[in-house]
């Protein structure tokens, strides 16, 4: 490491107390309104360019994935559904034989596939189809050209972003060991748009941080190594199982807020820089141009959004970091922040930066939460697609949670775009009200 980076190391001022750190949480266990983990395929298949996702499920599963992707009928996406029909459910056909035949035809037709994910669903779990054994059998048959991996995208007890968590956690046992690794290596964990990954890579290079690897990689042949000298940092807050799997392999997590907005990105980068002993002056010189550009762009957004109220329904597990961004950088007023699951360890710094007294809720009882939302009458509601249209009809401005996962929103250059995603529905609702007046 260059000695000039060791002169005055970055000291990351990460709050770990205050705000909502010890705030009471309203825990609800009732009717839920969320997508299932199969939806994660829509952004995962675009990232891992030589992988294919084969859902083992019903026609309903196929319609869900196809509708969420918006893929034209003539396109050849890297996902499909092996349909479980009435014969399978009745035990009149051997589902394993049928699955083997489907996989064989698929790999003959698509010789570009190097990794095949068998994605479990509610129907495959109902008939007790053992996809882990199927993936072992098919891996032996098609090795070394194709590796077959399985994970569950079932929506019985999950929310939609847990599909990515299950997918990445399934990859961790396959990562090569880095026992002989001497120098520390940074692993950025969580699916990022290629443009965002390139931006972060450029900043890491300027800071002198490296080597840097990403999970997932763009190609299955580029899976990163993992070992005692691996330092990993989460880019997404919903990767609890993946983080535990990496820690079990000896990797060490760098604790930080998530890189949403100017503040979150700066704290995320500074936590990495501190772990690498980067000189504080060098860090400031490196990040200041991008940070100032993003701050100037957000200043225009803040003028329009300051003082507006926002209500989060639990959907993606992005709710806490995004609420922090809206409150601290855009001046929005937080009413209730609902999250499907609140991982206090991974969200410790985010919780500390929320305004004290903010209502937090975990889990969902959708009817009760709808009642609270209507009583508050916020300027913006962040929710799933199933609630958005009914709430729009009632006169609320809504933002689809799933769009925040599909869109590039990490880092300095995307900070203004992230603000725009929240500001646009409020602007649209204001225009509708103006035309109706």
Keywords:
17 helices; 14 strands; 4-stranded parallel beta sheet; 437 residues; 44% helix; 6-stranded parallel beta sheet; single chain; alpha/beta; disordered N terminus; globular
Describe the structure.
The protein has 17 helices and 14 strands. By secondary structure, it is an alpha/beta fold. Helix 13 links the parallel strand 11 and strand 12. The termini are far apart. 47% of the residues are buried.
Write a brief structural summary.
The chain is built from 17 helices and 14 strands. It is of the alpha/beta class.
Tally of DSSP helical segments:
17
Number of strands: 14
Q: Class by helix and strand content?
A: alpha/beta
What would the principal axes of the Cα set say about the shape?
globular
Beta-strand residue fraction: 15-25%
Strands side by side in the biggest sheet? 1-12-11-10-13-14
Largest sheet at a glance? 6 strands, parallel
Percentage of residues in helical conformation: 40-55%
Mean pLDDT: 89
* Unreliable sequence segments: 1-7
Cα end-to-end separation: 65 Å
Report the radius of gyration as a whole number of Å: 23 Å
């Amino acid at each position: 490491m260059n000695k000039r980076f060791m002169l005055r190391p970055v000291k990351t001022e990460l709050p770990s107390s205050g705000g909502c750190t010890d705030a009471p949480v309203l825990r609800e266990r009732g009717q839920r309104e969320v997508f299932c983990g199969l939806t994660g395929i829509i952004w995962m298949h675009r990232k891992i360019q030589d992988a294919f996702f084969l859902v083992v499920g019903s026609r309903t599963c196929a319609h869900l994935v196809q509708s969420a992707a918006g893929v034209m009928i003539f396109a050849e996406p890297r996902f499909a559904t092996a349909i479980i029909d009435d014969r399978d459910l009745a035990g009149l056909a051997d589902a394993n034989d049928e699955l083997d035949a489907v996989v064989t035809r698929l790999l003959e037709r698509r010789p570009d596939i190097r990794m095949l994910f068998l994605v479990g669903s509610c129907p495959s779990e109902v008939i007790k189809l053992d996809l882990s054994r199927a993936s072992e059998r098919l891996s032996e048959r098609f090795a070394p050209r194709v590796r077959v991996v399985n994970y569950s995208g079932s929506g019985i007890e999950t929310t939609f972003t847990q599909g990515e968590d299950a997918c990445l956690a399934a990859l961790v046992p396959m990562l090569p060991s880095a026992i002989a690794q001497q120098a520390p290596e940074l692993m950025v964990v969580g699916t990022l748009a290629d443009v965002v990954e390139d931006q972060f890579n450029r900043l890491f290079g300027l800071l002198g941080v490296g080597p840097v690897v990403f999970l997932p990689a763009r190609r299955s042949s580029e899976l990163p190594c993992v070992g005692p000298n691996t330092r990993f940092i989460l880019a997404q807050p919903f990767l609890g199982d993946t983080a535990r799997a990496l820690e079990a392999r000896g990797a060490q997590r760098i604790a930080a807020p998530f890189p949403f907005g100017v503040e979150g990105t700066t704290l995320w980068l500074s936590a990495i820089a501190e772990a690498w002993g980067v000189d504080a002056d060098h860090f400031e010189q490196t990040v200041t141009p991008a940070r100032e550009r993003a701050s100037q762009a957000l200043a225009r957004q803040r003028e329009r959004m300051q003082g507006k109220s926002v209500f989060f329904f639990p959907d993606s597990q992005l709710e806490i970091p995004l609420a922090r961004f809206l409150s601290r950088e855009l001046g929005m007023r937080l009413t209730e922040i609902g999250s499907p699951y609140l991982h206090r360890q991974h969200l410790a710094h985010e919780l500390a930066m929320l305004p004290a007294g903010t209502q937090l809720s975990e889990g969902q009882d959708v009817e009760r939460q709808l009642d609270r939302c209507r009583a508050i009458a916020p300027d913006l509601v962040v929710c799933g697609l199933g609630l958005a249209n009914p709430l729009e009809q009632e006169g609320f401005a809504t933002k689809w949670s799933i769009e925040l996962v599909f869109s590039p929103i990490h880092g300095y250059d995307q900070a203004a775009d992230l603000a725009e995603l929240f500001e646009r529905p409020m602007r649209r609702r204001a225009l509708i009200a103006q035309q109706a007046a």
